[in-house]
Amino acid sequence: MQPQTIFDKIWSSHIVNEDKNGECLIYIDRHLVHEVTSPQAFEGLKTKKRVVRRPNLTLAVPDHNVPTIDRTKGIVDNESRIQVDTLLKNCKDFSVPFFNIDDERQGIVHIIGPEQGFTLPGTTLVCGDSHTSTHGAFGSLAFGIGTSEVEHVLSTQTLIQKPAKNFLIKFTNKLGKGVTAKDVILYLIGQIGTAGGTGYVLEYAGEIIDDMSMEERMTICNMSIEAGARAGLIAPDEKTFDYLYNKPLAPKGKDWDMAVKCWLKLKSDPDAKYEKTLLIDASKIEPQVTWGTSPEDVLTINSTIPNPEQYTNSEKKKSVIRSLKYMDLKPGQKLTDVEIDKVFIGSCTNGRIEDLRKASKILKGNKINPNVKAFVVPGSGLVKKQAEAEGLDKIFKSSGFEWREPGCSMCLAMNADKLKPYERCASTSNRNFEGRQGRLGRTHLVSPEMAAAAAIKGKLFDVRKI
Amino acid sequence: MKEFTEVQGVTAPIELSNIDTDMIIPKQFLKTIKRSGLGEGLFYEMRYDEKGNLNKNFILNEKPFSDSKILIAFENFGCGSSREHAPWAIKDFGINVILAISFADIFFNNCFKNGILPIKLNKEEIDFIISNLQKYKNILKVNLINQVITLGTSDIKFDIESHRKESLLNGWDDIDLTLKHKEKITSYEENNPNSFWIHIER
Ligand code: SF4
Questions:
Q1: Domain spans of chain B?
Q2: A230 touching B (Cβ < 8 Å)
Q3: Quick count: other Cβ atoms within 10 Å of Cβ B171?
Q4: Which contiguous run of DSSP H or E holds residue A424?
Q5: Residues near ligand 1 with C-beta < 6 Å?
Q6: pLDDT tens for the 466 residues of chain A, in order
Q7: In the β-sheet with A15-18, what is the strand arrangement from edge to edge?
Q8: Phi and psi angles of residue A98, each rounded to the nearest 5 degrees, phi first
Q9: Does A122 touch chain B (CB under 8 A)?
Q10: B174: part of which helix (H) or strand (E)?
Q11: Contacts of A421 (CB under 8 A, 6+ apart)
């Protein structure tokens, strides 16, 4: 047989039908659902009198709209409440398992999937959410879909797809001190651009990936979509299995042992073919921060704001001018001179227990700058509980951070957590688009450690110097 | 879905790359549980100022572009969030065709599910259309059957995958098409050697 990549292996084992144009019907093993992209899909099922084919392979949770302070009153915002209630009603009507907001397992879809062992290697996993790429950290072929496709999966447990192309991102050497998974993925996006991965599945490999924890691998795969890729993939290994072992929805006993045997075969074959390969020297990567309004507008922390004149492409020049105006930054200005108003630690990129541990390590014994308002939003109820058991909440609170309830929060500002116009934020989330964190708000994407450093200094700062 | 054959109408150039779905329809419009009515929020933060007044300088607010049926932009159109609210808003505004140098994957897919035709052209073709639009009252004709865009006397051919074309022309619903393979799906499930660990008992 021809040597295969991990993508090829998962893809070929999920083909239900292939037509003459090479278009495939692929089987979907896991479907995550949240309140924002599902109501119209359930409505479609109801109008056409269709059913959910495999409710047990589906898991729903409200996350985008939920309040992060005081949940005793329920959801105050009318529209948000209707959307969450609609999700819960739809789940009941169609027997889809869900976690309500008073359940300690509630959290961001991409955090609870792995946490529950719902995400497994070798599976196809989809969700009406672009950051579904996160689950690729487990060797699951995971990608975001639109609402029509959510309806398609609910009713058929399949999707119509064409195979993606393979793109190997291979890292050589080791990371420097104070450089994190977030810096690695931001750096990569800076190199290949936000459309660099379009049509591809990015497979990450190299010593630094082997050395990374599951949390770090999830951060990397999470932002694959920001490089335009359909999905990110990392071959499962002992760390993957250790993470999943005994998780509530993972296989148990003899099934577990046999499953691990299957999963060990997923690794790409040694001479598998990739349409594209990129080698990156990891030792060259330094802490990253975005300066513009696209994740590809990224620089190392010790750089200065670029001059639009340095771009020969006239269209790029125009977009840089537009970004600088929006961000209120001047060419030549040092990034470390940029003062910030808010710090947000959370999201499906960096809202896991290890992210909180790392940020709190920087904060321990320090107070945040009095001009900064900072808050932490754990990615799930279980992350929150674990952090509290370790006393991390106390470190955050005594440094001046607020400690919140789990959800998406100011990653996309659909709930009450927003930037005010012109406020500037160091954020551990994944998108710095215009208005993403609040109308006219200005976002600088950073790692949790860099966010903590920025909170202490009141400006963007190189965490290696703390 | 309605059948799609030909669209003729005003074409609005938005000369930007990386038009993301947050820009196309910002989050405050995502709280709806309906598909309709989103045209109001299309490009909201560019169309309205902070006080909610129309921004006179934004193209879709000017006549004749307020009646556009076609959009034209540069690279990576529809990047970012997977929200299908983006094509819903575009469609609800009255736009049925988008021309761009490239599209983000999920958005591209979502268009077809909603009877919108996204067409990839090369940079020269996009530049040619933008610079000559005015001469012809900003009107383009897009014919799906012949796969031709007409601007005045010039014809530009475009590519589209045959099954996508067929689906649009016939207004087919993907779910109905897939349900024709119901037996194959069942047989896949029954014969899958991995089902012992894929299956979840609850
Ligand atoms: S945390 Fe942000 S990126 Fe992640 S699912 Fe929520 S809104 Fe989307």
A1: 6-171, 173-202
A2: yes
A3: 11
A4: strand A424-427
A5: A 63-64, 108, 110, 129, 131, 347-348, 408, 411-412, 429-430
A6: 899 999 999 999 999 999 888 899 999 999 999 999 999 999 999 999 999 999 999 999 999 999 999 888 889 999 999 999 999 999 999 999 999 999 999 999 999 999 999 999 999 999 999 999 999 999 999 999 999 999 999 999 999 999 999 999 999 999 999 999 999 999 999 999 999 999 999 999 999 999 999 999 999 999 999 999 999 999 999 999 999 999 999 999 999 999 999 999 999 999 999 999 999 999 999 999 999 999 999 999 999 999 999 999 888 899 999 999 999 999 999 999 999 999 999 999 999 999 999 999 999 999 999 999 999 999 999 999 999 999 999 999 999 999 999 999 999 999 999 999 999 999 999 999 999 999 999 999 999 999 999 999 999 999 999 9
A7: A15-18, A24-27, A158-161
A8: -145, 160
A9: yes
A10: helix B174-179
A11: A438, A439, A440, A441, B50
A279: its two tokens:
């080698």
Query: In the 8-state DSSP scheme, what is residue A269?
Result: P
- A347: tokens are 């999201």
Crossing angle for the helix pair A392-399 and A381-389, to the nearest 10 degrees: 90
User: Which residues, in sequence order, are CB contacts of A413 under 8 Å at separation 6+?
Assistant: A419, A436, A437, A438, A441, B27
Distance from Cα A247 to the centre of ligand 1, integer Å: 23
Cα–Cα dist A136/B88, whole Å: 29
Query: What string of DSSP letters covers A322-391?
Result: HHHHHHT--TT-BGGG-B-SEEEE-HHHH-SHHHHHHHHHHHTT----TT-EEEE--SBHHHHHHHHHTT
- Answer whether CATH 3.20.19.10 is correct for domain B6-171: yes
Tokens of B108: 């591209």
Q: Are strands A373-376 and A342-345 parallel, antiparallel or unpaired?
A: parallel
Residues of chain A in contact with residue B31, where contact means CB-CB under 8 angstroms, are: 36, 65, 79-80, 82-83, 414
Given A16, A149, A152, which is nearest B181 (Cβ)?
A16
Q: Using the beta-carbon criterion (under 8 Å), do B202 and A21 form an inter-chain contact? A: no
State how far the alpha carbon of A245 is from the alpha carbons of A217, A220, A383, in Å: 17, 22, 17
Interval between CA B189 and ligand 1 midpoint (Å):
32
Question: Nearest CA to A354 among A190, A461, A150, A214?
Answer: A214
- Which residue in the block uniquely carries the two structure tokens 């012949």? B146
Structure-token pair, residue B106: 């999920």
CA A157 → CA A58, A125, B190, distances in Å? 10, 11, 14
**A57, A157 in Cβ contact below 8 A?**
yes
What is the β-pairing status of strands A58-60 and A342-345?
Answer: unpaired
Angle between helices B105-113 and A147-156 (to 10 degrees): 70
The shortest C-alpha distance from A173 to chain B (Å) reads 31
Please, which residues have CB within 8 angstroms of residue B73's CB and are 6 or more apart in sequence? B13, B14, B15, B16, B17, B19, B98, B99, B100
Among residues B94, B86, B46, B47, the alpha carbon closest in space to that of B70 is found at B94
Please name the member of B106, B184, B185 whose beta carbon is closest to the beta carbon of A145: B106
Distance from CA of B58 to the nearest CA of A (A): 15
The answer to whether A447 and A182 are in contact (CB under 8 A) is yes
DSSP letters for A79-146 = HHHHHHHHHHHHHHHTT--B--TTSTT-B-HHHHHHHHT-S-TT-EEEESSGGGGGGGGGT-EEEE--
Locate tokens 């760390």: which residue? Answer: A239
